[in-house]
Amino acid sequence: MSQFAINLLFVGGSFLLYIGIAIWAKAGSTSDFYVAGGGVHPVTNGMAIGADWMSAASFISMAGLIAAGGYANSTFLMGWTGGYVLLAMLLAPYLRKFGKFTVPEFIGDRYYSPNARLVAVICLIVASVTYVIGQMAGAGVAFSRFLEVEATNGLIIAAVVVFIYAVLGGMKGITYTQVAQYCVLIVAYTIPAVFISLQLTGNPIPGLGMFSTHTESGMPLLAKLNQVVTDLGFREYTADVDNKLNMVLFTLSLMIGTAGLPHVIIRFFTVPKVADARWSGGWALVFIALLYLTAPAVASMARLNLMTTIYPEGTAAQPIEYDQRPGWIAHLGRDRSDHLRGQEQRRPYPAV
Amino acid sequence: MSGHSYDAENYWKANLRLIFGSLIIWGLCSYGFAILLRPMLAGIEVGGTDLGFWFAQQGSILTFIVLIFFYAWRMNKIDEQFGVHEE
Questions:
Q1: Do A278 and B30 touch (CB under 8 A)?
Q2: Distance (Å) from the C-alpha of residue A161 to the closest C-alpha of chain B?
Q3: pLDDT tens-digit series, residues A121-150
Q4: Are A293 and B62 an interchain contact pair (Cβ–Cβ within 8 Å)?
Q5: Domain range spanning residue A245?
Q6: Which of A98-107, A149-158, A189-198, B10-19 is predicted least confidently?
Q7: Which residues, if any, are the signal sequence (chain B) (predicted)?
Q8: Is position A130 within any domain?
Q9: Would you give the DSSP letter of residue A236?
Q10: Do A212 and B47 touch (CB under 8 A)?
């Protein structure tokens, strides 16, 4: 079976699963449509929040950011998880207690003002649209790879699929679809990480592996990584930042942003009780942390792997010849030049 | 039954005390140990680097999880104590 056929089978299979779940959990009332009938179990809700949160930025790009920036980019790890502490203590239980469907309704009633409600709606739309633009661009890129179509068409296919199951199932359908999505995402992310960690350190848990001994050199993995990157003239991977205030403020803004995301907040309306809203914040962070504790390990191990692939004889010796570069580096180069040429080359289907 | 049959003032005080306590730990583990106090923890070695780095990439996240569960458990207890929990 060709790679394309395998892609179609798996991508198509997961679409069918998601749409099937949406039909099974079809919304039957207004309450079903907006807040899944308010009957979602906290653990299920936590998983759905996890899938909501593990989007383009966390799933596709975060490990790469950390690999490139080292310690300085820990801001993303702390920011995108620390926001849940604020959300769980300062926002979610009170909004749930209020018992309405949306945040603008809360603002409008709290300040006795339809205008305040209107302002909240506008803020909500601005925040959501900004967020969705990034997410859809990510979906377009991912789908263009799987289905070997252009990014724009990939984006349209993703939008149509999401539209079908969102309209059919409402919040109820989406909740159960996202539980399935969470399982798919986390398995896809952690399996390679476990095997990379086993190979480099012999420890099957990536988060522990990155602080263990690098089997090949006998040094701690991070010390080995620091040595390799400084030999090549880069800053130490674990080097401290010069501007602490900058890092503090950056982390703080990421945390506040996390606590304010509309699609995460609304999830706290879907549980039966205020007590459940509190628990689901904790469960959400557990499921998110499975990815966020693995990502920094993937980052440091990938950086080490990249360096040792290019300098197989050590940093003092010559790097590999350009023609000898492994397939995936060659592939990156080809994709990039295709992109520069304007994508005419990447059309696998004959024009109809 | 009036809306204030329970001791609203003390309930709110207990609520705030719990939140402030939790947020102090939250800030200490992220902004403190992982960023501002990292140079002071540089002597404590963890797997080829220092404790501050561990807090930045693992420890802070683990602390956040414990914090939210502790808060949920404690706050639900306070709700029961003041009789404002839902059946």
A1: no
A2: 33
A3: 999 899 889 888 888 888 888 888 878 888
A4: yes
A5: 3-99+171-340
A6: A98-107
A7: none
A8: no
A9: P
A10: yes
Phi and psi at A102, nearest 5°, equal -135, 165
**Do residue B86 and residue A220 have CB atoms under 8 angstroms apart?**
no
Any CB–CB contact under 8 A between A50 and chain B? no
What span, in angstroms and rounded, lies between the C-alpha atoms of A91 and B71?
Answer: 13
Given a contact cutoff of 8 angstroms between Cβ atoms, the answer to whether A113 and A119 are in contact is: no
CB < 8 Å to A285, chain B? 61, 64-65, 68
Would you say residue A115 lies in a domain? no
Query: How many domains does the structure of chain A reveal?
Result: 1
**Residue matched to tokens 């140079």:** B39
Handedness of CA A301, A302, A306, A307 (dihedral sign): negative
pLDDT band at residue A89 using 50, 70 and 90 as cut-offs: very high
Question: Which value does ipTM take for this structure?
Answer: 0.90
- Predicted pLDDT of residue B56: 95
**Has residue B5 been placed in a domain?**
no
Which residues of chain B have a Cβ shorter than 8 Å from any chain A Cβ? Answer: 19, 22-23, 26, 30-31, 34-36, 38-39, 46-50, 52-54, 56-58, 60-62, 64-65, 67-69, 71-72, 75-76, 79, 85-86
Q: How many domains does chain B have?
A: 1
Question: How far from chain centre, in Å, is Cα B78?
Answer: 16
Residue type, A5: A
Q: Residue B23 falls within a domain, yes or no?
A: yes
What pLDDT, on the 0 to 100 scale, is given for residue A86? 94
Give me the pLDDT at residue A332, please.
66
**Residue-range definition of the domain harbouring residue B42:** 10-81
Closest CB to A251 among B30, B48, B71: B30
CA distance to A41, A54, A88, A265, A326, per residue, from B59 (Å): 28, 20, 19, 25, 36
**pLDDT at position B4:** 53
B86 in any annotated domain: no
- Out of B61, B69, B75, the one facing A81 most closely (by C-beta) is B61
Is position A314 within any domain?
Answer: yes
Among A61, A329, A14, A288, residue whose Cα is nearest residue A177: A14
Residue A348: inside a domain: no
